[in-house]
Amino acid sequence: MPTNRDEFETWADDALAQGVYPFAVSSNPWQGLNQHLFGVMVCNYVGGHKFWEALNGQVPFNAPEFMEAINLVDEYLDRGYFMGERDAYLSYGTDAAYATRYEGRGGLLFQGPWMFSTWLEE
Q1: CA 78 to CA 4: how far, in whole Å?
Q2: Pairing state of beta strands 21-24 and 106-109?
Q3: pLDDT tens for each residue of the chain, 122 residues long
Q4: N or C: which end of the chain has fewer CB within 10 A?
């Protein structure tokens, strides 16, 4: 498992080279996943303390480090880390994203504990 950004990007590029999407995830039909993706990626990039400061109005969300994080998300979308092409991330449904994972064509599921009950039913 990657422990830093360089290792993650190496892992993700290797996964793509093997025909595996690093993240089996989509934003359709629940567009709120875009906010989740933004929150997780940006918080991990700038750090929890800085993210908290922005949420409380102490630091603007357009501060340089936040813009760097947003640009990184954009780069990862362009590199195909989230279901291949950018349009795929925006258009595939949840079932299609999960299918890639179950079929070995998707790496990590970008989900949280709210999905446990759904997975137990499946």
Answers
A1: 20
A2: parallel
A3: 889 999 999 999 999 999 998 887 776 666 666 677 778 888 889 999 999 999 999 999 999 999 999 999 889 989 998 887 777 766 677 777 777 878 888 888 776 666 667 666 65
A4: N
* Neighbour tally for 46: CB within 10 Å: 21
Distance from C-alpha of 105 to C-alpha of 100, rounded to nearest angstrom = 5
Closest CA to 25 of 47, 7, 6, 40: 40
Dist. CA 96–CA 83, nearest whole Å: 10
The residue ranges of every structural domain in the chain are 27-110
| DSSP per-residue codes, 42-89 | HHHHH-HHHHHHHHTTSS-TTSHHHHHHHHHHHHHHHHTTBTSSHHHH
Say how far apart CA 4 and CA 44 lie, in whole Å. 11
Which residue, 32, 71, 72, 70, is CA-closest to 54? 70
Residue 63 phi, psi (nearest 5): -60, 155
